[in-house]
Amino acid sequence: MCLGSRLFQSIQLATKPQFTGAGPFIELPTFNALGKSSNLLNVTIPSSSYLSIKSGSLVAIDGDLDLLVSYSKSLPNSITYSEVYTQSPVSIILNGNDNYSVIDIEDKSERWLVLDATNVIAWSGYTLELEPISIVSKLSSLKSQGKGTLVLQGSDQLFNITVEEGEQMLINPNTLIATNSSVEFCSVKSPSILSTISWPKITFPKLSRSGILGVIPGYYDQFKHKLAKQLAELGVSKSMDSVRSSVHQFMTTVRSGWDYVKMNLFDLLSPKPIYVKVQGPCKLLIKNTPPMSNRKMFTKQEIHGIFKR
Length: 309
What we know:
Layout: H1 2-7, E1 30-34, E2 40-45, E3 49-54, E4 58-62, E5 68-74, E6 80-86, E7 90-95, E8 99-105, E9 113-114, E10 120-124, E11 129-133, E12 141-145, E13 148-154, E14 158-163, E15 168-171, E16 176-179, E17 184-187, H2 212-234, H3 237-269, E18 274-279, E19 282-287, H4 294-297, H5 300-307
Antiparallel strand pairs: 1-2, 2-7, 3-6, 3-10, 4-7, 5-6, 8-13, 9-12, 9-16, 10-13, 11-12, 14-19, 15-18, 16-19, 17-18
């Protein structure tokens, strides 16, 4: 018996709600973390209430299963979830990562952006909806609309940060879970490999535009006009148009190759980390996670576009 008491920890579930999710005295679902590591979440659902939960996160149910209905739904390019409706009070347990954060959205004009939709565990509220939004190609993001409760998870320690009016903050995008502010990606230039090399300074003499050097452009224009006239008389102007078209196509290919070299070589030699820039007043939910390479979060085109700003 001593061994069993060490292996299994007694968990006290929250009391089932007495009111319902309908009528004049509405009671909404409540959320409570369980255990020392808080990797279990106890949700109490009043009668006649709805709760949306991430598929695969439900561990246990305390209540009458005959009075509980679940519908499987999905958001475009995002997460699959179950919408639970119960006709009697129930208590359920959800399993996720190490830490949870419960965000109560009381102002319908307040909209929260969740950068990675996989961090959403559950949400409730009669007017709360989550809409897909495109932020970066490698992540499925969501934005809230309406009032309700949003439950998010993080694999590391979570922090709630308030950015005051007039303040600006740069955040490692890998650490940002959610914010009620618009986001903008920017880069902060750091010393590159090329900047550490001492290059010799070469100065070229300025050529005068007077005298014989000044008349060269004029002679060149006359020569070009005369050559074009003679070619037209010989009937080879169409051939020259074909040559010009081929040269233009070649230069386009060269420019494309140059852009490829810039994205794949110069951006590597110039290690500029990318940050999320937010402007106060706003709220942030971040996790204590080490930074990751730009290329693990952004495409080459996105990185190049941010660096050009």
